[in-house]
Design a protein that fits this description.
Strand content: 5-15%
Structural class: alpha/beta
Helix content: 40-55%
Radius of gyration: 26 Å
Strand order of the largest sheet: 3-2-1-4-5-6-7-8
Distance between the termini: 62 Å
Number of helices: 20
Order of helices and strands: EHEHEHEHEHEHEHEHHHHHHHHHHHHH
Largest sheet: 8 strands, mixed
Number of strands: 8
């Protein structure tokens, strides 16, 4: 390949990098690749990339010179300091208008900072969420780019060609917004992923311990559910996991230690919700459920010392069909709550950061290629197309009816789980949020009285306009001096 013939470049040839590079080349875009370990580049060029339109560079300088201007360079390196170090190496050898694209799982505040820095050097910057794992990278991921708006017209033809497509052929890639918006939306995606996975695990636990079902039986149920309203990637792979046996006929699932890992994106989502004052309760519980699972040795010891008083030991066989249908309805309603909370967080952050987010477009982006792809994302897109200023999915007619009509089954599941002593933190948190959000009065009046009693924090009154604050001398020993007013 002669100098400056590649349409795009990619740095970082781990599994995701290799697969995304192969995807890009297969769609007709000659591509340059570089890896810090030169032998890795050579092995790729002489292996999976052999005979294809690739250029393997031995140095960053050679890599940069092989790409057409304005250069488009995807960085797929470990999030954190490695990204900053790579930017510092690239900035001096790039030219005005060149575009750096971070395709890793960077934290959105870092992307906000990096966008400003790179733009100050006369370059453009994109932080793009990439979802779909190894298979998605190779065959079509969900892409969530944000950053320098001027970069979008340059990268759009490539991004919308290599991404996943909806059944109608629409690209699962839209421009998300300014600076860190793309990585923020990817973070929320990952938080919803945490919630979806935990909800499925709770349903599995109720099937296994409550109904005594075998893995094969559970796999059949998840397979049936995947044909209806719960049609989604995570339900599909749960079906496959439950049915999987190794060469010796052993069910691998039963040999896996019940201690979950995490990389931190779920925690970032919950911290962001706390910063924004947004009730992301379901996803918060999903993160804490992983933390609790990780304390395996402590739980084993506690199980020997703490004996619960249960109201039931199992679910009667005569109830099985009815309870499985209740589980299906409870899972669907809870999934809607997870998305409702995630969208509330995005709306709050957009206001804080000054982003103009296309909420329907985000749902479209998630319809294919990504881990949380599911059938009802099309309904989310419709909801925001019908009402772009929709403040909560529960106020959309479709989702309102979907949740309200399933609440009886949902409540029966929570009651039965409580009687059995089987923890359902996310199913329970979803129902609690639903009951809280639909309540026109909550006990926060007592909470405000308590705050005013011990700290003179003041309160508002139901018989006065909002914004007027009052203080009561509850003990007779206090004065009229108050603390600052509260934010609500």
């Amino acid at each position: 390949m002669t100098t400056q013939q590649s349409e795009i470049g990619l740095i970082g040839l781990a599994v995701m990098g290799e697969n995304l590079a192969l995807n890009i080349e297969s769609k007709g875009f000659p591509i340059s690749v570089y890896n810090r370990t030169v032998s890795k580049t050579e092995a790729f060029i002489n292996g999976r990339a052999k005979g294809k339109k690739f250029f393997g560079a031995a140095s960053l300088e050679e890599f940069v010179q092989s790409i057409k201007r304005p250069r488009k360079i995807i960085m797929l390196v470990k999030a954190g300091a490695a990204v900053d170090q790579l930017i510092e190496q690239l900035v001096p050898i790039l030219e005005p208008g060149d575009i750096l694209i971070d395709g890793g799982n960077s934290h959105f505040p870092d992307t906000i900072r990096r966008t400003a820095y790179v733009e100050s050097k006369g370059l453009l910057y994109v932080g793009s969420g990439v979802s779909g794992g190894e298979e998605g990278a190779l065959h079509g991921p969900s892409l969530m780019p944000g950053g320098s708006p001027a970069a979008w017209p340059e990268i759009q033809p490539i991004f919308q060609t290599i991404c996943a497509k909806t059944p109608e052929g629409e690209p699962c890639c839209e421009w998300i917004g300014e600076n860190g918006a793309g990585h923020f939306v990817k973070m929320v995606h990952n938080g919803i992923e945490y919630g979806d996975m935990q909800l499925i695990c709770e349903v599995y636990d109720l099937m296994k311990r409550g109904l005594g079902m075998s893995n094969a039986e559970m796999g059949e149920v998840f397979g049936q559910w995947n044909q209806g309203e719960l049609d989604s990637y995570l339900i599909e792979i749960t079906r496959d996991i439950l049915a999987y046996k190794d060469e010796q006929g052993h069910e691998i699932l039963d040999s896996i230690l019940d201690a979950a890992g995490q990389k931190g994106t779920g925690k970032w989502t919950v911290v962001s919700a706390l910063d924004e004052g947004t009730p992301l309760t379901l996803i918060g519980e999903s993160v804490f459920a992983r933390c609790l699972s990780a304390a395996k040795a402590e739980r084993v010891e506690a199980s020997k010392q703490i004996k619960p008083e249960l109201l039931a030991s199992s679910i009667d066989a005569s109830e099985k069909t009815t309870f499985l249908d209740d589980l299906r309805q409870a899972l669907f309603a809870s999934k809607i709550i997870s998305y409702a909370q995630g969208y509330q967080l995005m709306r709050a952050a957009a206001k804080t950061q000054g982003w103009s987010l296309n909420y329907g477009g985000i749902a479209l982006t998630w319809r294919g290629g990504c881990i949380i792809r599911s059938a009802f994302l099309g309904d989310i897109k419709k909801a925001f197309s019908n009402n772009p200023s929709l403040v909560n999915l529960l106020l959309d007619p479709f989702f309102n009816e979907a949740v309200v009509s399933r609440q009886a089954a949902w409540r029966r599941v929570i009651v039965k789980a409580t009687q059995l002593g089987i923890p359902v933190p996310c199913l329970g948190a979803a129902l609690t949020y639903f009951d809280g959000y639909r309540s026109d009065r909550l006990p926060a009046n007592l909470l405000q009285a308590q705050r005013d009693y011990f700290g003179a924090h003041t309160y508002e009154r139901v018989d006065k306009p909002r914004g007027e604050f009052f203080h009561t001398n509850w003990t007779g020993r206090g004065g009229s001096t108050t603390s600052q007013t509260y934010s609500a």
